[in-house]
Design brief:
By secondary structure, this protein is an alpha+beta fold. The protein has three domains: 33 residues, no CATH class; 43 residues; 124 residues, Mannose-Binding Protein A, subunit A (Mannose-Binding Protein A, Chain A), CATH 3.10.100.10. Helix content is 29%, strand content 28%. Strands 4, 5, 6, 7, 8, 9, 10 and 11 form an eight-stranded mixed β-sheet that branches. A three-stranded antiparallel β-sheet has the order 1-2-3, with no helix packed on it. The longest helix has 41 residues. It binds calcium ion (3 copies).
Amino acid sequence: MASQGIELQYECPDMTHGDEHRYDICGVAIEKKKCDNSPHSKKVELPWKLWIKIILVVVMVSIMSLCISIAVTVLMNTRNDEVAKIWSCENEWILNNGHCYFFGSSNTSWQAAENHCKRLRSHLVKINDVGENLWLKTLMKELGSSDMWIGANDCGTEGQYKWVSDGSNVTYTDWDRLQPDDLNNEDCIELWDNYKTLKISHWNDNRCSSKFHYMCEK
Ligand SMILES: [Ca+2]
Ligand SMILES: [Ca+2]
Ligand SMILES: [Ca+2]
């Protein structure tokens, strides 16, 4: 009976996934072929689908904008903190070359001085180079001090001086004439004004129990 039937053609419901069928009059499929994207195919987009896509795009763009905004804010705040650290110090601290220094005006032993620096979240000063050394010597004069502990000693091994702040070896030095002499077990380093060298400050090893001014650095 299939040969006597009238062929009906049904429009594909979905041109990308649906099937096109041919049926006889009894509704029996006599031909079936896959729909394709030929110019004859018709793609119908429902309005509500379009709106969902638009909403999704808007939401994604908003989320991306928010993320970028947060990233920029965090970056700016970090940068501001770094700039603030370079250009300012806490009250009573002195700024020099990106570091902050605290002058301890009471006379204390080397270890008591270091303990106080640690309570101030710092260490006794580490003199890295000739520039920092010269700046400290000038400052010491301005502060009216003639003896000031700095952050190095040879308590571990005689003659091997280390910085207390990071445990590194002392490489740059500015010893006064005939120093260090380890006289009576002198193990801690100070900046001093030696009258024999016309009041020009240099380094001297001294007994760690001696009580001097001190300088913290952070
Ligand atoms: Ca330093
Ligand atoms: Ca010594
Ligand atoms: Ca000495």
